[in-house]
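Feature request disguised as a bug report, sorry. It would help if multi-protein outputs had a clear separator. Right now it looks like this:
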Amino acid sequence: MTPSSRGTAAVAGLAAGAVTLGVAELLAGLLSRVTTVTGTPSPLVAVGDAFVDLTPPWLKDVAVATFGTADKTALFVGMGLVLAALCAGIGLLARHRLAAALAAVAFVGALGVAAVLTRPGAGVTDALPTVAGVVVGVLVLAWFNRDMTTTALAATPRDLTRRSVLVGGGALAVLGVLGIVAGRVLSGAGEAVRAARDAFVVPRVTDPVTVPAAADPGVPGQTPFRTPNDDFYRIDTALVVPQVDPRTWRLRVHGLVEREVETDMAELLDQPMVEALVTLTCVSNEVGGNLAGNAVWTGWPVRELLARARPLPEADMVLSTSADGWTAGTPLEVLTDERNALLAVGMNGEPLAPQHGFPVRMVVPGLYGYVSATKWLVDLKVTRFADDEGYWTPRGWSARGPIKTASRIDVPRGGPIDAGPTVVAGVAWAQHRGITAVEVRVDDGEWQPATLAAEPTLDSWRMWTLEWDAEPGEPTLTVRATDGTGEVQTQRLAPPVPDGSSGWHSVDVEVRG
């Protein structure tokens, strides 16, 4: 096969692949519009979700550390590159062994169908778009390679054949991409949900949170005390943000309870709401990382709802489930004690953003998000750790996930500074224990106590500053914190798996004379 013929064969394969996905995604989008879909009819999203489910913890950590909150975009780009290479390879195979190439298309399609059918809430109807896309893709690939079975084309000039493949293949590829885009727009539009969110009014509370000015030193470059909603980190397994209509939302409490309870949005909003200032932290956060955020949350205490169901004495865990099937196992005791574990409907005075769990999510002080911060919440099962597991526990993470004491240097960081008086500043957190001291040292010198900002609540982070007379050179600054129990943050370095990273955060600074 000549280079030019290899190119036309690859184009034919890419065109067939694009049409396959375009038809499947367009039909999946239409299916989502005309029926009540509880599964994931989109093969792209289903395959991506299946990949996330099968991802080992170490690879998840690599993805988060490398791409941060853009990990889902990186996954889709990676999937696109792999699919493009696969389709081009199938196109090359078709020039010599058409039957094998068509079988390869069918096999890949079968994997897509399997991914669709294994998604939570899936039904046979959800697989129809993928099946239809594969059928069209097989026909397109066979049509491009019809000269293998049709002798009439033997006299067709090679340039004309190549030109027709390139033009036709390019046109079909473009149509396929447009079909993918149209399908994603149709399935993810969520006009009703957006309209409902626009009309949603965060309930007023009788005792609103007041953040004193002394809680934020206002040092340039230091993270703000309260994280703006648009800047709040997002780490979850949802490749496409679930669209949950508050008008049809229901929350069921069942399991080891004296009686099952179900509530809807109207009843939830009729309850006495509270505000709580809580810092959330992702277990994937590396030492010194930014996967933490602080916000004022508005919601109803989970303990009040659980009290209605009356958990049985043998229960010790609540398995919460999101609309997309993700689960978290939370110790029952932290949902029933005095802390403000909430069924949150508001974030910094605004309705929850879709990516942060609209219309209802859980917020639990003192636990990493993977065991507590379920978004798009729809189910609470009162159970036991011996009987049930959350999503991440069988994947190598610890079952309970208490947050470790941590501290971070925000400034100076990322560039040279001038010698002389400067401010070192950052944040520290030990949710539901509080921070009582922060210390900083230069190289291997003595630990110097930092000045702590005001602490409105033990459930949020605490900001700190240190006046430092910087001398020319390349010193290393290191920080450690002490929590409200008197325990000093450990120096022992540990990766996020299985229960959160630990160690002192250090930054190298270039000081100019």
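(second protein starts here, but nothing in the output says so)
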Amino acid sequence: MLGLIAPGCALLPSQLVAHTGIEAFWWIGPIIVLIMIPLLDIMVGDDDSNPRDEDYERLSRDRYYRWCTYLFLPIQLAGLAIAAYLWAGPELDLIDKLGLAATLGLVSGIGINAAHELGHRVERSERWLAKIALAQSGYGHFFVEHNKGHHARVATPQDPASARLGESLWMFLPRSIGGGFRSAIHIERDRLQRRGLRWWSVHNNILQAWSMTVVLFGALMLVFGLGILPYLLLQAVIGFCLLETVNYVEHYGLLRSRLPSGRWARCSPADSWNSDRLVTNIFLFHLQRHSDHHANPGRRYQTLRSTQEAPQLPAGYATMILLAAVPPLWRRVMDPRVRAHYDGDVTRANIAPHKRERILASYGLAS
């Protein structure tokens, strides 16, 4: 249930400001995600305990954990409606409205994580809930690209959502955002063609998800006016940029091995960065156990495990996204870990093509 604190951030600002008079609480989202959680991660530390094998089936079937993700949606949407009301009113100045948009944007990005969990399920109802959770960020094509694109190509040069060694976050973001969009269009178009359907079909998963954003934003503007549109768009951009920053952290520099046939080996826990920081895992439904998720994408979040095979991040996601924003600091922390993961053989890493010669030369290797 502590995972619902994240969407609850969208409900807190108005009450906190009203009861304390402290205007900074409009920025409660960045305060919690970028300051409090990293500090708590350091204070609380890791939890590398795993569910017992004999408990796996019981945990998987336990509907309590499903309802924790289901409840994310009404809290998330209620917070957006309250924010729209406040954006439309004259009470807040521009700085306060921007703070509220930043708070809603972080909730929107974490909402994509809830959609990520729901979108992996085979149950039709949960897959529809995933599309609803993506409506606030306007990132509905993620539903298609993540499941059918990213999971098939993860930790290879062909995956736009897998960051390369030497690639900064600011170079990665446009490549991942644009590449993921194009990939989703191709994947869904091909799926529809195989079923004998046209792009403009009610069965188009991308159009279904995008239409939910149009309905949501349209309804809010109908009620509160066109003046809220810039803030709706801003929080959406912050939301999907948060998602892509997490993507950057999750696979930086990692490359799957090749089979003798030349095909990529099956994804293993060694192909994703793992973190056992307890506090961030609570907030993100165990997303940081990403290595097990990619090796076993059918597992529900409460059953994900930490493995010795998985490379370990030095901190939780909340801290790592701050490091990622400063490329020299990021490379100082992460590049040696990538090299160590491959036993000093950096040629086995997923290296950014335009940085390959420079990186290999820095280690005394020929290209």
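Even a blank line would do. Unrelated, but nice: The CA atoms of residues 347 and 360 lie 7 Å apart.
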